[in-house]
Amino acid sequence: xxxxxxxxxxxxxxxxxxxxxxxxxxxLPPAQDDTPPTVHAYLLERLAAAGPATIDRMxxxxxxxxxxxxxxxxxxxxxxxxxxxxxxxxxxxxPVPYPIDVVHRDDRILxxxxxxxxxxxxxxxxxxxxxxxxxxxxxxxxxxxxxxRLDRLTAGLVLFVVDPTARGAYQNLFRDxxxxxxxxxxxxxxxxxxxxxxxxxxxxxxPGIIAAREVPGEPNSESRVELLDQQGTLARYRLIPxxxxxxxxxxxxxxxxxxxxxxxxxxxxxxxxxxxxTKPLQxxxxxxxxxxxxxxxxxxxxxxxxxxxxxxxxxxxxxx
Length: 320
Hints:
- This protein is of the alpha+beta class and 320 residues long.
- It is 15% helix and 25% strand.
- It has helices spanning 39-46, 52-60, 131-139, 167-175, 248-255, 308-311, and strands at 24-27, 83-86, 101-105, 109-114, 145-146, 155-161, 180-188, 197-204, 213-215, 221-231, 234-241, 283-291, 298-302.
């Protein structure tokens, strides 16, 4: 049986994205006994964290608009079901001073080679300084979405979807583990460690705690670690994750006694300044390989980046 598409309940936004960030959408709920008489009073409650002065300023400036783009009057009465859009004030962020390279682009997908320190998607204090926001803005691709995510401190390949109708198919490749991913990492050389080996453990990430950790219980993570090369006390490793737990590769390398060079979480949690780009995590998402769900083409993409500590072990801390 063919499913009918659900009718659209939210009108299209009358506001364009700002620096790659979509406007916030609000729909006024049904009226109740305690419903405020004006939209202004509702916004003071709904957006209390912004503060009255900010709400008053935004209303005076016409920053809240209705579905047809008309600015909301400051004295507008409360109207149940009214749709509003606005751009929130974005706090200043230290700019990540490294470009995003595009490895591949077609009508459906874009493969980006992201630098260290750049988050994949807006979250927390990282909003405009993210790969998604910068690519949307720089390439004029407002519908761009990620098919998966790469840790902010990790450099390398990220698959984005250009065509919104194709989003689910590519995201499902990662969900169903049909994408072969390989990483490269630099850590200490331990001649007595038998490699290659596969590590399996239970990894959990507790909300409010920065670093994930291994805990007793049934394994939910699996990584293969291989030695690629060695020079002096430093070694280059190939890491192949078979699952995708938060911080998985970093946790497993630390469990081997080989914390990845430049890791601020393992083995000891440190707190580098937000604008300190001098010591990048020496972890790189080196390749992505998958069969395209639409064309059947076998894709294999490779990062063009190198880990600086390997080519410049004395001066790697000057930047990625």
